[in-house]
Amino acid sequence: MRLSRAFLPTLKETPADAQIASHRLMLRAGMVRQTSAGIYAWLPLGWRVLQKVEQIVREEQDRAGAQEILMPTIQTADLWRQSGRYDAYGPEMLRLKDRHDRDMLYGPTNEEMVTEIFRTYARSYRDLPRNLYHIQWKFRDEVRPRFGVMRSREFLMKDAYSFDLDYAGAQKSYRQMFVAYLRTFARMGLKAIPMQADTGPIGGNLSHEFLILAETGESQVYLHRDLLDFDVLGQAPDYEGDLSPIVDFWTSRYAATDEKHDEAAWNAIPAERQVSARGIEIGHIFYFGTKYSAAMGLQVQGADGKPVTPEMGSYGIGVSRLVGAIIEASHDEAGIIWPDAVAPFRLAVLNLKQGDAATDALCDRLYAAFDGDAVYDDRPERAGVKFADADLMGYPWQAIIGPRGAAAGKVELKRRATGERLELSLEDAIARIKGA
Amino acid sequence: MRLSRAFLPTLKETPADAQIASHRLMLRAGMVRQTSAGIYAWLPLGWRVLQKVEQIVREEQDRAGAQEILMPTIQTADLWRQSGRYDAYGPEMLRLKDRHDRDMLYGPTNEEMVTEIFRTYARSYRDLPRNLYHIQWKFRDEVRPRFGVMRSREFLMKDAYSFDLDYAGAQKSYRQMFVAYLRTFARMGLKAIPMQADTGPIGGNLSHEFLILAETGESQVYLHRDLLDFDVLGQAPDYEGDLSPIVDFWTSRYAATDEKHDEAAWNAIPAERQVSARGIEIGHIFYFGTKYSAAMGLQVQGADGKPVTPEMGSYGIGVSRLVGAIIEASHDEAGIIWPDAVAPFRLAVLNLKQGDAATDALCDRLYAAFDGDAVYDDRPERAGVKFADADLMGYPWQAIIGPRGAAAGKVELKRRATGERLELSLEDAIARIKGA
Questions:
Q1: Residue B12 clears pLDDT 70, i.e. is over it
Q2: Looking at the structure, do residues A296 and A361 belong to the same domain, yes or no?
Q3: What counts of helices (H) and strands (E) characterise chain A?
Q4: Alpha-carbon distance B199 to nearest alpha carbon in chain A (angstroms)
Q5: Do residues B265 and B300 both lie within one domain?
Q6: Which end of chain B, N or C, is less surrounded by CB atoms within 10 Å?
Q7: A single Gene Ontology molecular function, please (chains A, B) (predicted)?
């Protein structure tokens, strides 16, 4: 995208009300614009990142055997009366009435609706197991939304729901999501650690939350260093096989948030393997048995002809929140440092002298080689402005091209994460970036 | 996707309240499930089609130079008070209050919000022209929603908004969208005809709606047969060049809905070139000048240093509605006939004898060759059920494989649209399907 024609605005001032790095940087880099308290529009730079994050989530859900659907944002209150949650859910639920005065709500989550859908179609044991997920905007009317997209009111969530015939099946579904989550976050360049969690308003008796470490994290966490050293993407899991060894590795090493912290277990870890840090929650998985299926009358015919009430679990990832979390985990004084997999563009081509024929030609050729995955800073701005904006926006690679390099046929490449600089021919520069 | 593990439910009965073909077929094929009046969940089959339609819309918007953003669904009423539309918009607007009792609404469209966003960042003539679009769920509280996704309350819309310095620029933006719309619909296998339209509540003085012909269309339309014969995809347009010849071709031939019908102009067409039919609206474009920019104080500095109030247009496509419209235009007694470009899966592999080693092996090989773009009907069902479901769900190709063909190494291919049948080797069958 040519910046002279793009809608990629940056702000020079640091917004006064932004307390954490991701919020400040997302506003300064023109990724989002707040349109009401805790509600954001995603501008082109932010939208590209959000789509990349969403696509990684989708691919790993699909790989684990979950099937994508899309449930609507507006739900009837009747569904929530069936589960008993309509009255139990507090003022965070955005309630409304339609023109016929029917009680509706903007979905904060979808256990009821997915149970109703599954109930409509599932007849027999042959229709299970199934895991249905969607990636849809949710609304939770936080009393004091803050921290930008990390704690917004309208937010994008991936929520999956598993249906199994028995406890063993439900545990298998749980482990599939457990492993899928590890892979999802690892692909985004994040070290996410599963920790045992309270089940809260979803209910149930088994639950893990996934946290990444970041200085601005909302929770204090304690963990065994083994967990940070593990290479999640080292081998592809067989989702139909036994996933217990992977899950056991993670659950047998100590990892806990403040609320679940156990001093005795913690002290049993050698001091040099103890890691105490701040954490940000980016995913949460629950097994809750028949809580919703029983309340809502979901039954199928078992293999023996008798009715079975399916066991369920739900599995959430805060997709829009992840964009902020990635920035919290990966930035410096100058701006964002995008992991390659979620970068809005892989490369920024910085033309230091527009109008110089050799410089323009070299920039054009490099830009053309990246077919939509590069920005070309062809604005009539000083070099310093271009450097600062590219650092702020955090593209993994910058190609700095001026008359001297162009005359020699050389491109100066800068790797944003390390500051490393290389002087390469055009062909080598292209190969280097594409090979990264 | 293996049907034995998929959530691709079909209904045997025709739903009583579904009046039109697309509604009936979408329910029977398990594409959608109504969760409240006029509100639908998209099940895996429907969701795949919706995503394909959305992606074509996106690619053609990008190609025409529009830039994607994502605005939220919930808006503050304050924005609509600035334009004067908050009171003017009727009961179709879903109004609500948040926990702090602030007036909010579920966006039925986004002229106000995009003007506010653009106003925040645009400073000078260098920041124009720009065209920003998003593909987001909207809500219009229809008093009597019906016809399934063709007239639902929560629906997916692509809406683009152009900002230009003057009338000539605005006309260029309008023509870019005009041509992009022709290409978008043509890629989906639809013959869409632009017709001059009233501007309605959006305001402004130039507008076209795009209609496709279908027996169940809501409007009577009249057009010159030339328009049906034109090959829209015959040549790629140069969006930065002069698009007038293309637009002039379409606007110089007669095409009108009932409301705009002109008997004299119609009678001037040779009788054999007159086409009178029913039409379904699938897109609408508007030029409305400074209606919103003036009301909301959007100004930039012109090249001469003087303030300029940008000229705007808006451009909508009903993305979820299109799924229904495509079915209205392409179905038969047995079910849906998907155009290749939007088919949920390209191929259905029908195994007529599970457990027969040669049959299973041939099915497995064919299924594997399509890597996610085929369904494999491996359910323990009779052949008749598999034939009927494949016809209903409308996959462009069916591969019918039983013991006799498998022993001879032959696949029977059926083309859904024509009923044509071919007996081919595995390799030839794969080539035939991939080459289509």
A1: yes
A2: no
A3: 15, 23
A4: 25
A5: yes
A6: C
A7: ATP binding
